[in-house]
């Protein structure tokens, strides 16, 4: 995960730490398997593989910090794994599920399909590269641009939801095209997204928060594709909505200043 790149220490040893890099490898394997599954038409398995990659990606950085095994090698390896799992894999899964069918509408539309998938992958790479250069320079409470794991969850979440509803990507070519471009551009935007890094699990929380967590787990168990897609779609929309709200408040303050 991108978090693994914080507080990296240089190691004079020629070896590498096994546990965090093993988790990173598992996350990368999930992304690779998602591509293979999509090529075989197993879109549900592809989506699940990306979500599993997200879990492993979230663990590797935390394990590295807990065991004091953070290294520059681990940070760079994690970035490359993220590009595969949350850039290449979601882009190709979406292409195989829906965008490839744009070819039936003509050569230009066919090119638009694979170009949209490429734009998504390129934006994921740019997002990760920008994150690497902004370590320690931005407020850690917020991400600049939509995080690549969340973007991947929106992409494969859409595939999983409609595949579960027996709706084929052939019937959703344009929505898939628009979603792919929108999510990709959100990754490289300057819009802020809450990072939850200041949330400490050791602190006391109201009882209602615990109840809400239990409810989310229960709903996820009942209908994983819809709940996961809904949660990450809301998160992706939270950035633009918050940005618009701040702009509106700034406009209102200026308007009141002029009227005064």
TrEMBL record:
Catalysed transformations (reactions): a CDP-1,2-diacyl-sn-glycerol + L-serine = a 1,2-diacyl-sn-glycero-3-phospho-L-serine + CMP + H(+)
Topology of this chain in the membrane: Multi-pass membrane protein
InterPro entries linked: CDP-alcohol_PTase-I, CDP-diaglyc--ser_O-PTrfase, CDP-OH_P_trans, CDP-OH_PTrfase_TM_dom, CDP_ALCOHOL_P_TRANSF_CS
Enzyme class: transferase
GO BP terms, alphabetized: phospholipid biosynthetic process
Cellular component terms (Gene Ontology): endomembrane system; membrane
GO molecular-function term, one example from the UniProt record: CDP-diacylglycerol-serine O-phosphatidyltransferase activity
Main location as per UniProt: membrane
Keywords: Lipid biosynthesis, Lipid metabolism, Membrane, Phospholipid biosynthesis, Phospholipid metabolism, Transferase, Transmembrane, Transmembrane helix
The protein, known as: CDP-diacylglycerol--serine O-phosphatidyltransferase
